[in-house]
């Protein structure tokens, strides 16, 4: 990818109202980011002027990445993590510090409580070390507790940290040395711009990266209501395995993990349990080196010169989709099943309604109606 193409991909990624699902549809429809940027404003109404970052904005972000030793890797490039590429809301652009070759290895996520017990930390470290010795990279979120223990134990064998802020932003503060060690010996990944401070909404988005980068997720201690369970939910939605380490029923830090086991998560007590479970690939797509759009599903041969309002049928489909949506998030696949029209036209309607400000794209490829 040329520098100019990378700039345009980043501009489209950062354009108001365009999430990962909408981004994919725009690229499928128009072929490249430059043309998509030129056509984006066709779908906006006079009451909503979306902000499209300038070339200078995108170049400044890429320059900031260079200054902190990060690479910007696009979804279409060979060294983009192949597992992450499979999820429907994979970030169009990732910033990576460290060894991107780790993404080619089998990987498992280990996550859990921030206020973890000593036993929980020891279990996380043991699993990470033993899986690492078997050639498995360990993914986690650089949080306190279980995450930190898993990262520390996998530094020598392959540690991958998915962070909520920029790849250069130390969070939590006490993990500064750990983050530097991962940058030198493993890899740090983020979809946020370098220098971006993490906000509350960034952590659930980060959680989908943790599971998306992994064949499966191991939960070691989690309360009944915790961010760890969001990661487990993301894994299930992405078709990844979910494992849990059983804990004492009188320890509230084990309530979430025990509940996952009741619901069918794989019970593990050692690394061998995990290695046996992932021995059979999860319907891998043959390790495609390049990102490929499904032309039949995405309508890649659509007329790129057709505007949003010049076809009565397209207007009708937009109205049908809009009527189906409300304040409760609805996932793309559910919308496609509910609307008895070609998938390519329904996906076009989602793009057009998003850019018009009638609906918003949320985490996980879900959409909500915002204009009633």
How would the blueprint of this fold be written?
Layout: H1 3-13, H2 20-30, H3 33-40, H4 55-67, E1 71-74, H5 82-85, E2 93-98, E3 107-112, H6 118-133, E4 137-140, H7 146-154, E5 159-162, H8 176-185, E6 187-190, H9 202-212, E7 216-220, H10 227-237, E8 241-244, H11 255-262, E9 266-267, H12 271-277, H13 295-298, H14 312-324, E10 330-331, H15 332-338, H16 343-355, E11 359-362, E12 366-369
Parallel strand pairs: 3-4, 3-7, 4-5, 5-6, 7-8, 8-9
Antiparallel strand pairs: 1-2, 2-6, 10-12, 11-12
Helix pairs in contact: 1-3, 1-4, 2-16, 6-7, 6-12, 9-10, 14-16
Under CATH at level 1, the class of the largest domain stands as Alpha Beta
User: How helix-rich are the residues, as a percent range?
Assistant: 40-55%
Q: Give the averaged pLDDT, no decimals.
A: 87
Which overall shape is indicated by the principal axes computed on the Cα atoms? globular
Terminal CA distance reads 41 Å
- Order the strands across the largest sheet as they lie in space: 1-2-6-5-4-3-7-8-9
DSSP, total strands = 12
* β-sheet strand percentage: 5-15%
What CATH calls the topology of the largest domain is Rossmann fold
